[in-house]
Amino acid sequence: MSEFLAFAHTLADAAGAAIRPYFGAHGDVEEKSDNSPVTLADKIAEKAMRTLIDQQFPDHAIYGEEGGQKKTISEYCWVIDPIDGTRAFIAGRKEWGTLIALCADGVPIFGILDQPVTGERWVGTKGERTRYSATPASIAATDLRGAEVTLQTRACASLANAELSTTSAMYFTPGQAKQVVALAQSCRATVKDGDCYAYGLLARGQRDLVVDAGLKPYDILALVPIIE
After folding, report:
1. How far is it between the farthest Cα atoms of the chain?
2. What is the pLDDT averaged over residues 40-66?
3. Among residues 218, 227, 11, which one has the least CA distance to residue 103?
4. What's the CA dihedral at 131, 44, 26, 35 to 10 degrees?
5. What global pTM score does this model have?
């Protein structure tokens, strides 16, 4: 486990190095078949991670948002999303991140959420408390700079006291949207800061609920051990 986790940090570092030069730049944006955007940064970062995995663990499977699946007979599969929240990335907002999970027989044993511009990183390992670290570049965590801390979600007595986060109404069907509106009306406040970053805020105790729809395995598997 320690070898795999150390390697996952290497993957996050490599993805961040590939992504940072493109943040805030007006690069080419393409539309995929599902009408979601993809940037050159997405492609370069995923290729960097895939290359490292193939070199270090050539028998491991890979499932990435941009490169699809590399299937093997190994019980281990790396599930990666180079930029979860590409629309926020394109807009120059920070509500995005790199997601890395290692699954054994389909179950995530650890997950990393990395925000390479702010320097924040969440690490969730099955059976352990989630760890969070931030560099001095992080504006959102001024009280935690340079330190690694263990996290817990905050206690919330009722929906009337809860702060709800969601990515965008465009991801919900009309029926789902009606349910989300009803839920939002029961909460104290609703914030649209979604994608993976909202789940990081949930783990840090700064959100009480996150509601999304249509998530793919590479959108969610890294977040499962972080939240649990």
Report:
1. 51
2. 95
3. 218
4. -90
5. 0.89
